[in-house]
Amino acid sequence: MNIALLQEDLVWENPPANHRLAESYFSAGSAPADLIVLPEMFSSGFTRDFTEKEPYPSLSWMKALARDRHCAVYGSVAVTDGAAAYNRGFWVNPDGSSEHYDKRHLFTYGKEHLAFQPGNTLLKTHIDNWTFRPLICYDLRFPVWSRNTRPHYDVLIYIASWPAVRREAWKALLKARAIENQCYVIGVNRVGIDGYGLEYSGDSCFIDFKGDLLLDAGDQKGRFDITLSYHELQDFRQKFPFLEDADEWEMDTSRMPG
User: Fold this and answer.
1) Closest CA relative to residue 115, chosen from 90, 88, 137
2) Closest by alpha carbon to 154, among 126, 122, 175?
3) Radius of gyration of the chain (CA)
4) Each residue of 128-154: pLDDT tens digit?
5) For the whole prediction, is pTM greater than 0.90?
């Protein structure tokens, strides 16, 4: 499984500029990937004051990218849907079809809850024999929501706008999620300073099912690629079947507010 992530300094509340920025890394002549992962609110930066309206130009752009590059694409967009707004993660398949996950845990410390509504439904999606659980930023702090229950996922994704001041928590929690869920973890953050003056240090990374760091983007801008091994993951799970001893439960999302 070939996965590419983008770590960049996003243009504040300017989707066309951010589309062009991403296209510079994923043009027709660039290296192929099975999945492209973009940061949280990749089209605008982490804003409380801007949303895209239907038909969501950034979703249309993601669909075109997925079709042109013959790959899946995941990233989140601030959207208005009916009377409410959401921090919505779009998963787009190579054929242009899409699914979405609305961020469950809104960052109240940053007043995200004043602008957006929380989601209450998890998403599991697939590429060939791989199963993915795509989540968003602050979800990282809540291990129950990330729990690897049956049928087990293989890759856990957190796209983020995680400030530099809490970078050590980002690194530690990503590693913990990989170990406890016995899966690959992909963390995709941004760099630069946003429209509210917050600084981001990047630290996008790939971590394996043992908690080993496979790639760390540091504070560099750019595209970062890696190949993940399904057979190594499954062999490790068979050798150390920790997931088989985990507590069994079903999350009743129908009882959750939002």
Assistant:
1) 88
2) 126
3) 17
4) 999 999 999 999 999 999 999 999 999
5) yes
| Active centre residues (catalytic) | 40, 103, 137
**pLDDT of 256 strictly over 70:** no
Which amino acid would we find at residue 90?
F
**Residues with Cβ < 8 Å from 136, sequence gap 6 or more?**
40, 76, 87, 89, 101, 103, 104, 158, 159, 160
Please, what are the domains in the chain? 2-246 (3.60.110.10)
Q: How many CB atoms lie within 10 A of CB 46?
A: 26
Would you say residue 254 has pLDDT above 90? no
Query: If you search the block for the tokens 């410390």, which residue do you land on?
Result: 109
Give the confidence band of 29 by pLDDT, cuts at 50, 70, 90: confident
Q: Which sign, positive or negative, has the C-alpha torsion 239, 240, 242, 245?
A: positive
What is the C-alpha separation between 109 and 42, in angstroms, rounded? Answer: 21
What is the pLDDT at residue 21?
97
